[in-house]
Model the fold of this input.
Amino acid sequence: MICEEEDICRCALNLCMRYEGGLARRLYDHYGSAAVVFRQPLTELVRHKGFRRSIAEKMLDPELVKMAQRELQWIEKRKIKLVFLYDQSYPLRLRECCDAPLLLYVAGTADLNRGPFLSVVGTRSATSYGKAVCKDLIGGLKNLGINPVIVSGLAFGIDITAHLAAMENNLTTIAVLPAGLDQIYPASHLNIARNITRQGAVITEFPSETPGNRHNFLQRNRIIAGLSDATLVIESKKDGGALITAHLACDYSRDVLAVPGRPGDVSSKGCNNLIKNNKAALVDSAADIARMMQWETTPDENTAWQQDLFTTLDNSEKLVYSQIKKQGGDVNSLAECLQIPFPVLSATLTKLQVKGLIECMENNEYRIIL
Done:
């Protein structure tokens, strides 16, 4: 395969600056071409902030061009798209970020600029409650007629739950890897990653043969935050990795949403802190997300969804929903009227809120939304 000089130089620049997305972009913007960057003497390049000796050594490595050529051959053979920062198909939201990667490896069919984008992140050790909330929120958005693109990191817990929920609802989903496309992480999610490429995309900034490591996860998180209009955090411990993504989203001036947990619940401490410190908006239903993001819903679909969803509620949910629809009430009055044990009633109210059917007003009384 004969490659143009600029293509090789872009790939080479990405190879030697895979952890320096901001610097690679500044150099490209300053000189207007990756090929021109490589023509500069080191005395010129070292003037740029962040340019270190280790980077210079990589750029002077005589094997670098050969590595770039092999990389381009590798992606062509596997029909992987290599999307450059200023290509029309590069995600515009991500391009707005000062440290956006120079190149993205893309496997799949998703349009990286079409539709509202929502990143969904959370703990790897998700509880059954967290997984249920994740599924209900994503399904609820679909049922509201919004069809968001769901972005996450393919990890265990909330990430993989979000991807699966998106595919179950025929929504586009994008998985962002902390490794090369030949190093799917975790390996046990390989088949899911293949399915995602048929209904979305698996992307990374890392070249082939790059394994996942701690630093790569931190790099990956900025892409998850930068791709989307908002980042939704569902279950995160006090110092969970999802909080890094949330803080990055704040830095990028993107919306951050969080699902609250019970006081003292270790799995939701991070979410509660985000809300308490005004770093995230509290959401507990798909309707909340749509309202916060000002995403238009489809009224006709809402009506159809209400009728269809009611038939899928369990007996406790139907009973509580019907009572609230009839005359409202707070937890105590509902428990007394329905003769339902308080723990069961509390859990049922939470599920109905997550599904976007009811809401709790300032006077602590519940009312129906749909």
